[in-house]
Design goal:
The protein has one domain. Helix content is about 40%, strand content about 20%. The chain has 4 helices and 4 strands. A 4-stranded antiparallel beta sheet has the order 1-2-4-3. Helix 3 runs antiparallel to helix 4.
């Protein structure tokens, strides 16, 4: 068991290592990108990577405060479902309504890797191998799909 400070330092070390590992990769538009804090350019749509003691996940999160608009954005993603899943090479979980860690209702499209822990350095390679190709694939998808979502800005 780690103290809160030790746990925080391990998570920070992991994300630093991940950032250094993925930094040489340019976006699909051949630009430098901050992969860890990926910016979609569309308000209320974000790509999130998470790693903790239980596993890791990569998600598209829709956080628009207006429930109807949030649902419209989710439906817009459904229109791109085949393209998205082709780009990702896998099927993700689609949740129209979920409560995030802050108690806010969001919509989420995600995949997860259970069982690996960010607190075990021996798991870092599998966590990185899980996160890296998925965030890169999301970027490739987004480079063409984002224009269909700009009306929600």
């Amino acid at each position: 068991m780690y103290s809160k400070d030790q746990a925080s330092q391990l998570k920070q070390a992991f994300w630093t290592a991940f950032g250094q590992y993925i930094a040489p990769h340019l976006s699909a538009d051949q630009e430098k990108v901050n992969w860890i804090n990926y910016r979609t350019g569309v308000k209320h749509i974000s790509f999130k990577m998470q790693a903790d003691q239980k596993g890791a996940s990569v998600a598209i999160e829709i956080s628009h405060p207006d429930k109807e608009i949030k649902e419209l954005i989710f439906e817009q993603f459904k229109e791109f479902k085949n393209i998205l899943e082709f780009q990702l090479g896998e099927t993700w979980t689609w949740e129209l309504s979920e409560v995030n860690e802050y108690g806010k209702e969001i919509s989420r499209i995600y995949t997860s890797l259970p069982g690996a822990s960010v607190y075990k350095k021996e798991d870092w390679a599998s966590l990185i191998s899980f996160l890296k190709p998925r965030i890169i694939s999301l970027d490739e998808f987004w480079s063409t799909a984002k224009y269909s979502f700009e009306l929600f800005n």
